[in-house]
């Protein structure tokens, strides 16, 4: 089996799984999350990378990028 065959098989499996969920990404995520819970394994989150804000203030970022809204009237 060469690399092209392997990639074709992976893509076919991925498409079949997506088709089983009618290509609904939210449904696929819910399924994976329920499988994680049923597995009984402890899932660990990696520590935050140094120097990165774990939860940036999106409103403040938008205010820096976007012009202020026009005043009505």
Q: Concise description?
A:
Helices cover 56% and strands 0% of the residues.
Quick tags:
single chain; mainly alpha; 3 helices; 0% strand
What is the C-alpha radius of gyration, as a whole number of Å? 21 Å
Count of DSSP H/I helices = 3
Main sheet: strands, sense, barrel: none
Shape: extended
Distance between the termini: 70 Å
Order of helices and strands: HHH
Q: If you average the pLDDT, what whole number results?
A: 85
Strand content: under 5%
Low-confidence stretches: none
Could you give the count of β-strands? 0
Give the proportion of residues in helices: 55-70%
**What structural class do helix, strand and pairing data support?**
mainly alpha
Characterization of the model:
The relative contact order is 0.05. The chain has helices at 3-20, 25-39, 58-65. The chain is 56% helix and 0% strand. The chain has a domain at 1-40. The protein is an all-alpha fold. The model has no long low-confidence stretch (mean pLDDT 85).
Question: What secondary-structure arrangement, pairings included, does this model have?
Answer:
Blueprint: H1 3-20, H2 25-39, H3 58-65
